[in-house]
Amino acid sequence: MPHDALDGSPARIPVYRRRIYHADTDAAGIVHHSRYLAILEEARTEWIAGIDDDEFSAFRRGDKAMAVISTRQRFLQPIRLSQIAEVSCRIIDVGKVRLTFAYAIAVDGACCHEAEICVACVNARVERLCPVPQLLRKFDAREDAR
Predict the structure, then answer these.
(1) pLDDT band at 140, cuts 50/70/90?
(2) Which residue among 39, 53, 62, 130 has the highest number of C-beta atoms inside a 10 angstrom radius?
(3) Does residue 1 sit in helix, strand or coil?
(4) What stretch of H or E contains 91?
(5) Is the pLDDT assigned to residue 111 strictly greater than 80?
(6) Keywords for this entry (predicted)?
(7) Residues 86, 12: Cα–Cα separation, whole Å
(8) Contacts with 44 (C-beta within 8 Å, 6 or more apart), sequence order
(9) DSSP secondary-structure letter at 101?
């Protein structure tokens, strides 16, 4: 999972910036391992909330959701209280009903955390899998490599 800055181009997801608060840290002032997934979820949620597309209105209404299937994380350097974390995210795999996000959290340009999260798209009203929104397919990093 290489760390690369995302530039907001059509096939990229913007960087999410967030200050680290006391609630994120342990007694030593270092982000607790349990908080990383919440920070990554915030980044993905903020990105989806900013998409102005009819298909994504179902996510904003709560009719559709992304359910986490699996996670993988690497803790490279500690992140501390009051630091500004920059979360970059990209879609690295898109299937019919699931997609995989790769994340990197950097502080002052140094990569501190890497993660991959695989999610399934779910129709929340009937609790069934549903297709990945067509708009997300343009963010598939594999397309950039072709």
Answers:
(1) low
(2) 39
(3) coil
(4) strand 84-94
(5) yes
(6) Hydrolase
(7) 15
(8) 66, 89, 101, 117
(9) E
pLDDT at 18 over 90: yes
Contacts of 58 (CB under 8 A, 6+ apart): 64
- Whole-number pLDDT of residue 10: 39
What band does 12 get if pLDDT is binned at 50, 70 and 90?
low
CATH architecture of the domain 16-145 equals: Roll (3.10)
Torsion of CA 48, 108, 101, 136, to 10 degrees: 40
CB half-sphere exposure, 61, CA atoms < 13 A: 11
Q: How far apart are the first and last CA of the chain?
A: 18
Quick: pLDDT tens for 37-85: 999 999 988 887 777 777 677 776 778 889 999 999 999 999 999 999 9
The amino acid at 115:
A
List phi, psi (to 5°) of 43. Answer: -60, -45
Dist CA 81 CA 61 (whole Å): 34
Q: DSSP of 8-74, one letter per residue?
A: --TTS---EEEE--GGGB-TTSBB-GGGHHHHHHHHHHHHHHT---HHHHHHHHTSEEEEEEEEEEE
